[in-house]
Amino acid sequence: MSSELSYPKSKVNKVNRLADRGKYDCKTVHEILKASPVVHVSFNPGSLDDYPVILPMIGKLGSFENPSADLSEPLDLYLHGYVSSRIMNVARKAAQGEEEGTTPLKVCVCATKVDGLVLSLTPNSHSMNYRSSVIFGTVELVMDLDEKLYAMKLITDGVLPNRYDDTRVPPDSAEMQSTQILKVTIDHASAKIRTGQPGDYEKDMKRDDLREKTWTGVIPVYQAFGEPQAASYNRVKDVPDYITNYVKEHGEAEKEYALTCIDKEAAGKS
């Protein structure tokens, strides 16, 4: 029996369409979130008359209570932003209302990586190789100074490993006051992954005329980094190794994954 930790299936997070592509283990869900430079955070701004809001944000996983926890263990998602931005104001209002019996702010967060454009014989069979994670969680304002600094380091190093300690740290009081950190406790989550080649219908595979005129295959898609460009006021002669190594190694890993995905069996049509 596997001891792998997973998010329980529920009506909230269960993958219905092409259910065999669904994944619920913490490691898979968290790996996709970690690999995504930007996550999209959806929340209700307050009134039912308002439009729902989706914001692109930087979000990074971690555990202040258990800093050594890895991606296969329960983790929180930390988000940061300007203290008076809309989501921060809504979260603050919800937190103040908890004392009066109202519920805290709940969010849905999505992360997606596209690994290939899947080109088939017919429009309906076109697809993409992709990885996506969707989490549903409850928001808490981070007020503890130590946890706030932990989250700021986590987020900075999540953008570029080892960057935080190579800057002016810790942030000064004005910076700390103008920045708000949100901690999302993950209540439900799932991932969905598509890999492989096109999956065409048998009726089309039997048509030689169609197969001879229509190119089919996969165009790999991966994130590539360009040569680091120094700022106009930069005085450091050489780009630090931790930057050049990340640019090279991360770019190569993204390309290798996208190519490997093509050789994997696709889970169904589209």
UniProtKB/TrEMBL annotation:
Tree of life domain: Eukaryota
Pfam families assigned: Pyridox_ox_2
Protein name (Swiss-Prot/TrEMBL): Flavin-nucleotide-binding protein
UniProt organism field: Orbilia brochopaga
